[in-house]
TrEMBL record, chains A, B:
SUPFAM superfamilies: alpha/beta-Hydrolases (SSF53474). Belongs to the esterase D family. The keyword Hydrolase applies. InterPro entries: AB_hydrolase_fold, Esterase-like, S-formylglutathione_hydrol. Pfam families: Esterase. It catalyses: S-formylglutathione + H2O = formate + glutathione + H(+). The lineage of its organism: Bacteria, Pseudomonadati, Pseudomonadota, Alphaproteobacteria, Acetobacterales. This is S-formylglutathione hydrolase. It comes from the Bacteria.
Length: 287, 287
């Protein structure tokens, strides 16, 4: 089966000399139609292969959120970086209760592969964002698959950290905005990991950045994390001090910046998104 | 009655070293609760009076749209410019049919004062954005009322051009993205002006930028207009050549730039919003 089968460009808009596109395709991994967004900088529109940052959004968001709200496209255009934005979960899987809670099911896929029924048939965002989506988007757009970064916000920050630590040769640069660093130890994570992976906590470790660091997984580049100190989820769900402690113990280079007054919103994300892209560009040897 | 009575801050978010706020208040002019947004740059947060650009959104939009989608706040922060964003119409006026069409009534106030029943009781966005809102927001925020600019997109571009030409001493700088330049001659405008102002076309001229130029109204600064040449509304609703012709005849300085491939969306607006802010800053003697 051809990965580009049933691929549809839903929207295409010139932007900052490049182009924003929203695609829909039939995902083999998810067993459903799925959507993603792409920003191609002017260099890519001109046919040049460019490095690419995958940006994972948080709970309740979609493939549109980061592209619309991060205000990062001018800087991506300037740096010659592409951005790819997957959705945050499968849509329309038909799992009972998947639309009931905003922090579970639809819009809350946690970038992992569920092993528990009834989620395991479709909730496979882990394989989707690390295999199917890169293979597809890098086949249809002029992206340099040897220079690939990953970032994300909140649940997406969790996804970025986890996948970069699991596959540091695949994701060469990594950053996060207000990430869930230790889902195994906080309410959002406990709820999702229990449902998707079962009650056996050992299975959770592969999807927990702090546990991965404790188990010896590190990333060769510096991890950049920004966190607002007025974030309404800081104490209960985010707890970045666990990441600091685990990184220090593992010898992982980490730049964790606390920003006075900033909250959990995209007003916070957009304030630092251009700096994150410069971090990725520098690690990826661009610009 | 105190203009700041019943003023409520609905949201406040630090952003780019400044702050985004969304307010709600009781508008005497509209006779309803009304919402608006403000971005204050770092200089204003530090207490300094800063110049301000009022940004008017287009059909179906709200006070949130420009702040979320223009990606202009980093540049506003850098330049030390505030941005004020009114809503696009009264909300909940209770006029029969006001929610029926997307180009009439709710979300489509056209920045004018309706004279025709049943619209005339509440649809008074003209006086609202030129008197009540500036008096209110400049009383509660450190804004320099002697350095005030106006911009807008589509219907909001119409509003910006019209009000700048009607009161050039009040609005010292002016720009527009894909504006409706000649509403009296296009379907969107004919529909709205007929409903709001009646069938007597002479009454329409005060709310039509081309008619105002033809009647001798000019602005002392250069008007900056950006227009995508792939804009889906270009031929039917926007017709910027009327503005070029009228400006040339009136001796009005106009920079009208056509952009190959760009459409009518905020992906277009965000591509040029920073340049518009630099235009305003330059005319307002800032930065």
């Amino acid at each position: 089966m051809n990965d580009t089968a049933e691929l549809q460009v839903r929207e295409e808009h010139p932007c900052h000399g490049g182009v924003v596109r929203f695609y829909e395709h039939t995902s083999r991994v998810l067993g459903l139609r799925a959507r993603f967004g792409v920003f191609l900088p002017p260099a890519a529109v001109a046919g040049q292969k460019v490095p690419v940052v995958y940006a994972l959004a948080g709970l309740t968001c979609t493939e549109e959120t980061f592209l619309i709200k991060s205000a990062a496209l001018a800087e991506a255009a300037r740096l010659g970086l592409a951005i790819v934005t997957p959705d945050t979960s499968p849509r329309g899987a038909g799992v009972e209760g998947e639309d009931k809670d905003w922090d579970m099911g639809t819009g809350a896929g946690f970038y992992l592969d569920a092993t528990q029924a009834p989620w395991s048939d479709h909730y496979r965002m882990g394989t989707y964002i690390t295999q199917e989506l890169p293979a597809l988007v890098e086949a249809i757009c002029p992206l340099d698959g040897t220079r690939r970064g990953i970032t994300g916000h909140s649940m997406g920050g969790h996804g970025a950290l986890v996948h970069a630590l699991r596959a540091p040769a695949f994701w060469k640069s990594v950053s996060a905005f207000a990430p869930i660093v230790h889902p195994a130890a906080v309410p959002w994570g406990e709820k999702a990991l229990t449902a998707y992976l079962g009650t056996e906590r050992e299975a959770w470790q592969q999807y927990d950045a702090v546990c991965l660091l404790e188990a010896g997984h590190t990333h060769p580049s510096t991890i950049l994390v920004d966190q607002g100190d007025a974030d309404q989820f800081l104490e209960r769900e985010l707890q970045p001090w666990h990441l600091e402690k685990a990184a220090a113990a593992a010898g992982q280079k980490l730049t964790l910046r606390r920003h006075a007054g900033y909250d959990h919103s995209y007003w916070f994300v957009q304030s630092f998104a251009a700096e994150h892209l410069r971090h990725h560009a520098q690690v990826l040897g661009q610009g």
